[in-house]
Design a protein that fits this description.
2% strand, 2 strands, single chain, 265 residues, 7 helices, mainly alpha, two-stranded antiparallel sheet, transmembrane helix, transmembrane, membrane
């Protein structure tokens, strides 16, 4: 109910932001922040999904107790980023299982030989389904990552919210894209060299697939951050030069006005 006569209502209305006052243009910093955040999410999803694949392939119990308690030792394929993350997830799973399920539920759940066979069949079917769905999800995350990477290289300037129109082909925009590509090139080159040195020193080994879909995206993210930093510095320099020019013009105008005043006198 409107209460324009009330001083309290008018004060409350004045304190609320107006819908029309919200800016309809988002800066390139906001766009870049959103794209980089989505790219990091895709990388985390890929790591988690690959870790789940490793845990399913080896088995959580076999992975945690590898080489102990009568379980087989780790095989030649049991290494890498996904295997390490899968080991951690399997360890958490066993901790929760031993702390929650065993003392609270296992004592009253009857298990017969026929039921155990049915359970094993169900588990095998679920594992086969997961081994199909998990790689598919990894592919979707990878495609999404590539999409946001391309978006980052395209939209390097401010734009209207929700607009998909391409930015102007200005020299500054292409220079920003050059900064981003240069940062990606530097980060991937240094990263490749660092991993080669670690592998030669037998300190760290990464599978080729993991390097392609985990390490390279992380290096690209770092390169884009470097390019973003260069863009910030470039815009600060441009703003500083424009401010200096404006100040110089203001001084010149003031000098001319003073001379005109003296001539009139």
């Amino acid at each position: 109910m409107p209460c324009s006569w009330s001083r309290r209502c008018r004060a409350a209305d004045n304190g609320l932001p107006s819908p029309s006052s919200s800016p309809d243009v988002e800066s390139w910093g906001q766009i870049r922040r959103h794209h980089l955040r989505m790219m990091r999410k895709q990388v985390r999803s890929i790591v988690l999904l690959m870790a789940l694949i490793e845990a399913i392939r080896v088995g959580p119990v076999q992975m945690v107790y590898a080489g102990r308690q009568g379980y087989a030792a780790p095989g030649p394929e049991d290494f890498g980023i996904a295997y390490s993350v899968g080991y951690f997830l399997s360890w958490l799973y066993l901790c929760v299982f031993m702390v929650v399920f065993v003392p609270l539920f296992s004592w009253w759940v009857p298990v017969t030989s026929s039921e155990s066979k049915k359970t094993e069949k169900i588990v095998e079917i679920l594992q086969k389904i997961n081994m199909v769905l998990l790689p598919l999800s990894i592919g979707i995350s990878l495609v999404t990552y590539i999409y946001y990477t391309i978006q980052t290289l395209i939209y390097v300037d401010s734009r209207t919210i929700g607009s998909k129109s391409f930015p102007k082909n200005t020299r500054q925009n292409w220079l920003v894209r050059l900064f981003l590509l240069g940062g990606i090139l530097v980060s991937t080159s240094f990263g490749y060299g660092a991993f080669q040195i670690l592998a030669d020193m037998d300190l760290a080994h990464v599978k080729t697939l993991e390097y392609s879909i985990i390490v390279v995206p992380v290096q690209i993210n770092i390169g884009l951050l470097w390019g973003t930093l260069m863009q910030y510095k470039m815009e600060k320099r441009i703003a500083r030069n424009e401010a200096a020019k404006a100040q110089k013009v203001g001084v010149e105008v003031g000098t001319v006005d003073e001379k005109a005043a003296l001539l009139e006198v």
